[in-house]
UniProtKB/TrEMBL annotation:
PANTHER family: AFG1-LIKE ATPASE (PTHR12169:SF6), ATPASE N2B (PTHR12169)
Organism from which the protein derives: Nesterenkonia cremea
Keyword Transmembrane helix: no
Upper lineage: Bacteria, Bacillati, Actinomycetota, Actinomycetes, Micrococcales
Gene3D superfamilies: P-loop containing nucleotide triphosphate hydrolases
GO cellular component: cytoplasm
Gene Ontology MF terms: ATP binding; ATP hydrolysis activity
InterPro entries: ATPase_AFG1-like, P-loop_NTPase
Protein name: Cell division protein ZapE
Alphabetically ordered keywords of this record: ATP-binding, Cell cycle, Cell division, Nucleotide-binding
UniProt cross-references to Pfam families, sorted A to Z: AFG1_ATPase
A GO BP entry: cell division
Amino acid sequence: MLSTAAPLSERTPQVSVDDLLEGLKPSFRFSEVSFDSYIPDPAHPSQAEAVEALRAFSTTVGRKRGGGLMNRLFGGGKPAAGPNGIYLDGGFGVGKTHLLASLYHSVEGKRAFGTFVEYTNLVGALTFRKTVEVLSDYSLVCIDEFELDDAGDTTLMSRLLRELSDAGVKLAATSNTLPGSLGEGRFAASDFKREIQVLADQFKVIRVDGEDYRHRGLPEAPPPLSSDELEGFAAERFPGKETVVDDFAAVTDHLSRVHPSRYRQMIAGVDVLVLKDVETIDAQALALRFVVLADRLYDQDVAIVASGQPFDKLFTEEMMNGGYMKKYNRAVSRLTALARSGQMGEEAL
């Protein structure tokens, strides 16, 4: 007999400002990493160089640059030398998130760690001015998977990072797109050169070379089970685990009514997700919301047992080859890993 918790489609978490900010920290996958646990590949010297650059950058965190008369009169000290931000550029699978989390763990004081979309969602939940007010009190803001997907995000993040930098907050980011090239292929980047340049000016770029996992292709999605056997399969494989059973259509419909900044709390405590009758998503807005859910499920290592379409058919071919292709490929890769964990017992890496 499968003991289940409330379906995701019936969860509408109420999230306070403190709850949102508490979630801005590395996931369990990177909760104990350090610069020492990062093993640079000798074939790619830039990896070791990135470690040393981040170690040096960490010593500047907490030293406000400028800060006005009161800061100078009452212990502000000399302004920190060097850029107010550092940006790790490189392909997938070279350890950029490991390094960014190591920076987070290496410093003390108030700091935040989240994906690009988590910060845009934070602004959506709190308002821009409140977000600036709250994060200006932090010594370090880490932005993982930095990517601009539309003109609105460009302007929003340009203003946010400029104001945080002016307040003396240190910034660190990862991406596989150089700051000056953000937005290419998604919108008319040439029309927003000023905003993109403002972003680029915040960071010193550190290149991290290495093998790109995309060259190895996506892992093969496990064959879906039949809807009738899902619950029995999950009960046998995951006895005693916190399990949620839901219909894919109900979940996707519910996502449109819950702000993405609350998805982390929506899946809180879930070990296994049993998802019935997965279908291909053909609406862009819903697809992007499902990408956020996939990231949160992956962060929490929620095993998935599913019927219907395999996850490599979750998005249309047009989506997988369009402007958001990196987001969709990441989501497919992560959901497939969680499905292989749920149905084949593999560890989701």
